[in-house]
Amino acid sequence: MPMGVVASVSDGWLTLSGQVEWQYQRNAAYNSVRFLSGAKNFTNLITLVSKPTSDDVQGRIQSALVRSAYVDASNITVNVKGDTVTLTGNVRSYMERDVIENAAWAAPGVLNVNDNVTVLD
């Protein structure tokens, strides 16, 4: 059964729940339990979740930087490739750099952040 899927049984009624990214995972979960003996009925409550695109992630990070009172967003470049964000630019303080990095980590689907932001003296 795909990760993120839970099966529960009550009075012969089998319920699948959870979230997966692809329809084939939803089908695989159902196919792995549909022939279980003793199961009389099935409810498939597994939902599909979309994975954000690189443009979505980049837009969310840039919007978060613009909203922040601590960051001059015009000095920061955000590049997204797959699940990796690369930040470049110059800031006035380490606190500003931390705010930028935290904004990148807070975006959905981000697994790696390359922080190339320089703190100016």
TrEMBL record:
Residues 53-121 form the BON domain. Pfam families: BON (PF04972). This is BON domain-containing protein. InterPro entries: BON_dom, Lipoprotein_DolP. PROSITE patterns: BON (PS50914). It comes from Deinococcus psychrotolerans. The lineage of its organism: Bacteria, Thermotogati, Deinococcota, Deinococci, Deinococcales.
